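Help needed: design a sequence for this.
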């Protein structure tokens, strides 16, 4: 039943997406440095010899200073709003923790834990997305860990992260993927070395077209697309894009 239902949804969705009177088009062409994503995984097989990581925060940092713990020391992290931080190292741990420096009533300084996240299994390259939490005095930041490796997110693909609170169908060219709320998926952009705009559509599980756009892609670019519920009552979604141009592979000497 699940297979036939999925086939029916895809057929309905493809039909709905082909109706020109239901398509509102906007074009997104971005060429910035960026990251990638995969779902969080179980932590049983993590290689604790070390990982490299970067951090991303869309809004202003809600505190003056932020540190992560590396071994027994606390190292500062520098943020750039809407862009990845520089690369940092993390060794001999399966947990990423963030701290702020505070002073207690006796005038003694210490580091207070304000956010934590498990690492991602099977990768040595991680992106941590920071989301400030409202009305959470103890944990000020929510942290989403994403696979930032070439294997997990290869060039020539999109990775969609669904933060709308609802399940969606995502169509890239002719391929349709079901994307649960709070989940992440990857889709092949099927782009060449010439690059170009790729049709991307979002639909409900009932086959209703919710949004249509075109996103620039290239055989050597990869782009994470955050799908957010819009705060504008006239729009269904807002989007945040984090693209990255990947270097051309070096040829072996003959």
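Sure. Designed sequence:
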């Amino acid at each position: 039943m699940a297979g036939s239902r999925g086939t029916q949804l895809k057929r309905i969705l493809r039909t709905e997406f082909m109706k020109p009177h239901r398509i509102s088009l906007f074009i997104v062409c971005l060429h910035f440095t960026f990251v990638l994503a995969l779902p969080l995984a179980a932590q049983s097989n993590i290689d604790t010899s070390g990982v490299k990581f970067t951090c991303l925060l869309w809004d202003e940092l809600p505190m003056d200073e932020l540190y992560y713990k590396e071994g027994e020391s606390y190292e500062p992290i520098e943020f750039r709003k809407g862009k990845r931080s520089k690369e940092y190292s993390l060794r001999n741990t399966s947990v990423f923790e963030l701290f702020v420096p505070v002073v207690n009533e006796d005038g003694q300084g210490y580091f207070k834990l304000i956010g934590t996240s498990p690492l991602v299994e099977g990768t040595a390259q991680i992106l941590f997305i920071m989301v400030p939490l409202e009305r959470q005095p103890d944990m000020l930041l929510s942290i989403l860990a994403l696979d930032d490796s070439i294997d997990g997110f290869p060039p020539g693909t999109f990775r969609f992260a669904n933060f709308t609170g609802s399940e969606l169908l995502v169509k890239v060219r002719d391929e349709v993927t079901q994307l649960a709320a709070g989940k992440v998926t990857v889709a092949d952009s099927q782009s060449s070395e010439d690059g170009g705009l790729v049709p991307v559509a979002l639909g409900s599980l009932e086959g209703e077209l919710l949004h249509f756009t075109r996103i620039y892609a290239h055989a050597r670019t990869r782009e994470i697309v955050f799908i957010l519920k819009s705060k504008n009552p006239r729009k269904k979604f807002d989007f945040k894009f984090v693209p990255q141009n990947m270097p051309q592979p070096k040829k072996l000497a003959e």
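The longest helix spans residues 2-17.
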